[in-house]
Amino acid sequence: MIRQRATTVAEWAERMHSAEPPTEDDVTVLLDGRRLDSRESIEAWLKEVEALRVLEAATHDAFQ
Amino acid sequence: MTLSSSGPPLDLNRLLEVLTRNEVDFVVVGGSAAGFLGASRLTEDADCVVRRERANLERLASALRELHARLRVARMSDEEAKALPVKVDGMMLETTGNSTWTTDAGPVDVLADLKDFEGRSVPYEDLLTRSMIVRGDGFVVHVASVDDIIAAKTFANRDKDREALPELLDIQEREHSQRYEQYESDVAFEVHEDLNRDIEP
Fold first, then answer.
1. In sequence order, what are the residues at sequence separation of 6 or more whose Cβ sits closer than 8 angstroms to the Cβ of residue B141?
2. Which residue of A has its CA nearest to B39?
3. Which residues of chain B have pLDDT under 70?
4. Which tens digit of pLDDT belongs to each residue from B159-172?
5. Residue B4 burial by Cβ neighbours in a 10 Å radius (0-12, 13-18, 19+)
6. Chain B residues with CB inside 8 Å of A6's CB?
7. Going from the N-terminus, what domains does chain B have, and what CATH number goes with each?
8. What is the pairing mode between strands B132-135 and B96-103?
9. Of B12, B135, B160, which has the smallest distance from its Cβ to A16's Cβ?
10. CB contact under 8 A, B2 and A53
11. Of A18, A21, A46, the CB nearest to B2
12. Judging by beta carbons within 10 Å of its beta carbon (0-12, 13-18, 19+), is residue B160 exposed, middle or buried?
């Protein structure tokens, strides 16, 4: 049974108290399509992000 | 299939307040938006499509840090996720399409876009033009239109999406008929105003 649209955030938030927990297929997905569904995949990604940070900092310094 | 790792329950009011106070540009989509529109089949994670501009992603990172966000990973407990060496910043968010988080205000999914019926990307800017506004205590939030939510769920076509569609189609019919009634009322008002103008001396 559908209800009327909520009129305030408070009313909306109250409705969400009865919601089901998220499902296991909701995982982080990178822009290149890789799914971060294991500790190994997350650690590999974090290393790549750190390398990008270093590269960005170096590029920024080079133009100062 | 619910998630085994547990974290705090969704506190939507707090989550939306923190995002807006940090000036994050976002539109609420998915099951939580369906809850706003009146659907009864709800999942607890708040789905948000964000503007993919670096400055906005930095503001989002700031909001996520304030909420002590940690990645939500299947078969990993919240305690294990907290121990991952994740530094939340704009650079990191820029590499993700969809990212799933547990926060002190409950589960949050950050999305790069929605998909239309054919799977084409619908970014924040397009969703915003069709969105509705809902007021909180000192802030406003944009919620995606039922048409955009239906298109994304139709394309995703998972069991949970197919189960949610009948209610969403009922809501769509209601929204369209209310919009038509409003249009008729506006037209009647304009005609009345024109007639009044014509008979004025």
1. A9, B16, B20, B28, B133, B134, B135
2. A2
3. 1-5, 201
4. 989 999 999 999 99
5. exposed
6. 35-36, 38, 134
7. 12-171 (3.30.460.40)
8. unpaired
9. B12
10. no
11. A21
12. middle
Long-range contacts of B123-126 (CB under 8 A, 24+ apart): B123/B49, B123/B52, B124/B25, B124/B26, B124/B27, B124/B49, B124/B50, B124/B51, B124/B52, B125/B51
Contact with chain A for residue B73, Cβ under 8 A: yes
Please indicate whether, in this complex, the C-beta atoms of A9 and B74 are within 8 angstroms of each other.
no
Buried b / exposed e over A6-30, threshold 16 CB at 10 Å, is beebeebbebbeebebbbbebbbbb
What string of DSSP letters covers A2-57? Answer: --PPPSBHHHHHHHGGGPBPPBTT--EEETTS-EE-SHHHHHHHHHHHHHHHHHHH
Asked if B166 has any chain A CB less than 8 Å from its own CB, the reply is no
The region that residue B38 occupies, defined by phi over 0 for left and psi between -120 and 50 for alpha, beta otherwise, is: left
Tell me how far apart the alpha carbons of residues B106 and B108 are, in angstroms, rounded to a whole number: 7
Report yes or no: B97 and B49 within 8 Å, Cβ to Cβ: no
Within an 8 Å CB–CB cutoff, is residue B154 touching chain A?
A: no
Residue-wise pLDDT for B30-39, tens only, equals: 999 999 999 9
3-state secondary structure of B159: helix
Terminal-residue alpha carbon distance, chain A: 61
Query: Which chain B residues have a beta carbon less than 8 Å from that of A46?
Result: 84-86
B16 chain-A contacts, CB cut-off 8 A: 9
How confident is residue A13, by pLDDT bands cut at 50, 70 and 90? Answer: very high
Q: In whole angstroms, what is the distance from residue B88 CA to residue B117 CA?
A: 32
